[in-house]
Every structure is written in structure tokens, then in C-alpha cells.
Write a structure and sequence with these properties.
Blueprint (H helix, E strand, L loop, with lengths): L4 E2 L9 E3 L23 H4 L5 H8 L5 E3 L2 H7 L7 E3 L1 H7 L4 E6 L9 H14 L4 E6 L3 H13 L2 E7 H6 L1 H9 L3 E5 L5 H9 L7 H14 L3 E3 L6 H21 L5 E5 L4 H15 L6 E7 L4 H4 L1 E6 L8 E6 L21 H8 L4 E5 L1 H15 L5 H20 L4 E6 L7 H8 L10 H8 L8
Length: 454
């Protein structure tokens, strides 16, 4: 078949999430309690997280987890998402490669994050909670949470990274329109926020700071729990719906990818896209190349260290073993391309450490050049984050042009860029600059990593 877009039908939306960890022989390292250096128990995690999500977080064995009927019904309002053959991009590049992308930007929040927000908010509601707290960087996660909270009827409190709160007022208003309460972070309303402001005067925040604030609020407020939009195992589990749909769509059109690419912030869209394909690799059934594309200004895979580190700057979250730049790492202020988190999903970190995933890092101007090429060819304005994957896909397609190989490339188009026009403006007017952290910047970030377990 030679379709431009391939859609599954609503009834073909997967009934189960797929848990990649079940097929890993060496499992991702467990979360540790920083006070005891022992694995976090379900009981300890339940102070901050919803019960069902704690169960999913700790479950390395169950391969398929049923998607609740209510969540599947909600998915039907924005899924299945299309698998698109980027024929016009292929033509422009003059490549013999076949390029496909799985497009997750077709909902108001504009990204894949709604896939996990839907599940997390549903489980919180089912537990009888009043509300949830979380952080948002660029605002996609907050918008997704606000939408899901409006749908399932839950109170939603979002700490928004201060630089984004100022730069992206439109996302803030999307959240408020869907009923969320939005506070710029670091704020003076939490203890940890006040501490961070004392230590880093004038900081415009980071995802790590905002996480600390949201966790503190959840732990201290009756009937509230914290939810996280990336990094955690449970989030990768929910995002597996992206890969499961893509896998099925490839079967329908009778094609199959050789290379699978995603951008990486905390790793959830890449982890979700590759999940069923990685499962085949882990079970020894097939081989694929998997590539994570990250910003050179926040290069956790390519220049980070595989260590136990805090997930947050305030050092109140559990320790996760991951490729990390150190919880004190702050991307340079000129960085406009998203993907600002200092660490990487422990599942993807373990797979990367085993050599099953490759990684590349790009400077932001070259990423926006790729975004422009893609937009003009395919008619979709991509999110800056997703454009890292576009850049990697274009590079691979150009290698095929050189070698004459007809490879099949799949990349995740994790979202749209309609709320990122300040960054596009910088690019279009030539004021966007690149900054690659020096070794001394990285050493400073890593100095915040706590002593490692024996
Ligand atoms: C949040 C976000 C990302 C990065 O998060 P991951 O967990 O690494 O997927 C990538 N793309 C878009 C559009 C996002 O909103």
C-alpha cells in the first residue's frame, strides 16, 4: 500500500499497554530511598504517588497491562494517531529512504503527553483523590494534565518553570482555560522553592525545581498526589501506545522500519515509540537501530554519567539510576528548544548502557533548520523538541542518499510548535544562538550528584 496517512480504526486502539521491562534480562535499577539507600517500597512511594501508578512503577514482570475502558474511551477523542509517510520530505531530500513519522500532535495540548496524563488522572480519580500536583517545563505536560483533569473531574495544580511562564503565556492560558491552577517556579509558596531562590538568586527555574515544589505540595496537602509527565517507568508504559499503534500500522501497510528515532527529554516519547520494537530485539526476534536525539545544550545521554541521582534540584525525590548531568545542572538561558531535564529514564538509560540504543546531540540552530525543512515539505509546524528527531531522521536519510540504500526510517513527531513561536521568531530573525556547555559546566552539575550506593 502506498498511503500518505495510515489510521487504525477506533476499535484497533490497543487494549493493553506493553511493559518493555518484562522482556529485559537486566532490569533497570530500582529507585532508592536517599535516606536508607534501600529500594523504595510501595508504601513509601504511595505518600507521593497514586496507588495503581506505584504498582505499575515497581512492576518489572507483567508484560501487558490492561488499559481501563474509561481511558480507552477518552483516547478515542484524539487517537489513534496517524502513521504518516513523509513523501514530500523524501522528495525534497532526494533520498531513496522511506521516511515515516508517527504524529502525536493532534490534540489541543499538542503532544504525546496526553497519553500518560489520561491514565494518571484516571487512576487518581479512581482512588478517590481530590486533585493532583505537577510541574511543567514548556507547558505541554501541564496542558495535557489540565485537559485530562477537566475530562475526569479532578483539581489540577501546576508549577510552571518560570522562564516558560514568561515566554509561553499562551500555554499558561490553555491550562487555565481547562481549569488548572498555575504557579511560576521557583515560587515562594513552598519551602523548597524559597530554598532554591536563596541558593540561585534570579534563577528562571528548571524542571528539577518545579518537580521539588509540586512534590512538596502533594506530600503536604490532604487528598492530593503528585504526577510526573516523563522519566518514570509508568510513563513509558502508558506511552507504549504510540509504538503499539505504529507497529500495527506497519503490518497493515506491509512495511517495516530499520531505524527508529525519537527526541529525548526524559525519554517517554522515545521509550513509548520503540517499546514493541525493542521487545522484539530483547526477545531475539529481530534487529532495529534505535536513536535518541537530544540537545547539545542538555546532553544527558551523550555527555552524562550513569549514576544514581536525584530527579529534582531540591533533592527531595527518590534516587534514580540514570544518565544524568547532575541535579544541579541548568541549561544555558539561551536554550529555547525544550528537553531541559538533567536526567534520562532509567529504562532507556539501562538499554543505552547495554548498547541497544544510540544517541546523537544537536545544536538548536541546526534543529530549527531541520524543523523549517520539514514544515515546508510536510505542512506541519513541528515542536522544537520533536525537531531533534526530525534532524536525526534527515541526517539518516541523507546518508541513504549517499550510499543508495533504501532504508526505512521511522521517527516520532511528538508534538506541534504553535506555542513555540518565540523560539521560531529567534530562529527566523537570526538571533538564535548555540551554546554547548563546557566541561566545567558539566563538572559543576555533576558535583550535585550524591554519594553512590556500595
Ligand atoms: C515533553 C516533550 C518531549 C520530551 O519528553 P520525553 O519524555 O522525552 O518524550 C518531547 N516532545 C514534545 C512535543 C514534548 O512535549
Amino acid at each position: 500500500m502506498d498511503n500518505y496517512r495510515t489510521y487504525l480504526s477506533e476499535s484497533e486502539i490497543p487494549t493493553h499497554y506493553y511493559n518493555m521491562r518484562a522482556d529485559m534480562k537486566v532490569k533497570p535499577a530500582p529507585l532508592l530511598n536517599p535516606a536508607t539507600m534501600q529500594p523504595m517500597t510501595a508504601e513509601e512511594l504511595s505518600v507521593v504517588f497514586c496507588e495503581e501508578l506505584v504498582k505499575q512503577e515497581l512492576d518489572d514482570e507483567t508484560k501487558f497491562v490492561e488499559i481501563p475502558e474509561e481511558v480507552r474511551e477518552y483516547y478515542k477523542t484524539f487517537r489513534p494517531s496517524p502513521l504518516v509517510r513523509a513523501k514530500n520530505l523524501e522528495k525534497r531530500l532526494g533520498t531513496p529512504a522511506r521516511i515515516y513519522f508517527k504524529f502525536e500532535g493532534n490534540n489541543t495540548s499538542g503532544s504525546h503527553k496526553l497519553n500518560s496524563a489520561a491514565a494518571q488522572v484516571y487512576y487518581a480519580k479512581k482512588q478517590g483523590l481530590k486533585g493532583i500536583t505537577s510541574e511543567t517545563g514548556a507547558g505541554q505536560w501541564g496542558s495535557a494534565l489540565a485537559m485530562a483533569s477537566a475530562h475526569f473531574g479532578l483539581d489540577c495544580k501546576v508549577y510552571m518553570v518560570s522562564s516558560s511562564y514568561e515566554q509561553k503565556p499562551f500555554r499558561r492560558e490553555v491550562m487555565r482555560t481547562f481549569g488548572a491552577d498555575v504557579t511560576p517556579s521557583p515560587s515562594t509558596t513552598t519551602e523548597v522553592g524559597r530554598k532554591i531562590l536563596r541558593e540561585f538568586p534570579g534563577t528562571r527555574g528548571s524542571l528539577g525545581c518545579a518537580i521539588s515544589e509540586a512534590v512538596e505540595e502533594a506530600a503536604t496537602r490532604e487528598g492530593y498526589r503528585y504526577v510526573l509527565g516523563s522519566v518514570l517507568n509508568q510513563v513509558l508504559l502508558h506511552q507504549s501506545i504510540i509504538g503499539l499503534e505504529a507497529h500495527k500500522a506497519f503490518e497493515i501497510i506491509g512495511d517495516s522500519p530499520d531505524i527508529i528515532i525519537g527526541c529525548t527529554g526524559g525519554g517517554s516519547n522515545l521509550g513509548g515509540l520503540i517499546a514493541p520494537f525493542m521487545g522484539e530485539v530483547l526477545r531475539g526476534e529481530r534487529n532495529y537501530r534505535f536513536i535518541g536525539a537530544e540537545p547539545a545544550s542538555c546532553p544527558s545521554f551523550t555527555r552524562g554519567k550513569y549514576l544514581y541521582d536525584f530527579c529534582d534540584t531540591g533533592q527531595i525525590c527518590p534516587l534514580a539510576k540514570m544518565y544524568t548531568l547532575g541535579n544541579g545542572f541548568m541549561p544555558s538561558p539561551n536554550h529555547a528548544g525544550g528537553l531541559r531535564f538533567h536526567g534520562m529514564s532509567s529504562t532507556l538509560s539501562e538499554l543505552y548502557d547495554q548498547g541497544l540504543i544510540e544517541a546523537v546531540a544537536y545544536e538548536q540552530t541546526e534543529v530549527f533548520e531541520a524543523a523549517e525543512t520539514f514544515a515546508r515539505a510536510e505542512g506541519i509546524l513541528p515542536a522544537p523538541e520533536s525537531s531533534h528527531a526530525i534532524k536525526a531522521a534527515i541526517d539518516e536519510a541523507l546518508k541513504c542518499k549517499e550510499s543508495g540504500e533504501e532504508k526505512v526510517i521511522l521517527f516520532g513527531l511528538s508534538g506541534t510548535g504553535y506555542f513555540d513561536l518565540v523560539a521560531y521568531e529567534q530562529f527566523n530573525s537570526g538571533t538564535m544562538t548555540d551554546y554547548i556547555p563546557g566541561d566545567e559546566d558539566l563538572a559543576k552539575g555533576l558535583s550535585f550528584v550524591p554519594p553512590q550506593p556500595e
